[in-house]
Write a structure and sequence with these properties.
The chain is α+β, with helices and mostly antiparallel strands. Helices cover about 50% and strands about 20% of the residues. It is built from four helices and three strands; from the N terminus they run αβαββαα. The longest helix is centred in the first third of the chain and has 15 residues.
């Protein structure tokens, strides 16, 4: 997300929407990979309910997104 638009929820909506589309197409999980020093992405993954899989990675399951990221899907 461009620095001018950070902290507006754009990244959260993009990731949640992409995951929702993947889950609608039959995916059971999404793997989020990001640079270990990218704390903003780590916080976003955590906010969506993803579990840390490794340094710089997280696993998001459909049930978690429905429960914790549902509001982001409507946006």
């Amino acid at each position: 997300v461009h620095p001018y638009h950070r902290r507006e929820g754009v990244g959260r909506r993009l990731v949640a929407r992409a995951a929702a589309i993947a889950f609608a197409e039959g995916a059971e999980a999404a793997v989020l990979l990001f640079a270990p020093e990218n704390r903003a992405m780590a916080r976003l993954a955590d906010a969506l309910g993803a579990r840390s899989a490794a340094l710089g990675g997280a696993l998001l399951v459909e049930a978690t997104l429905d429960r914790r990221g549902g509001a982001a899907l409507a946006a």
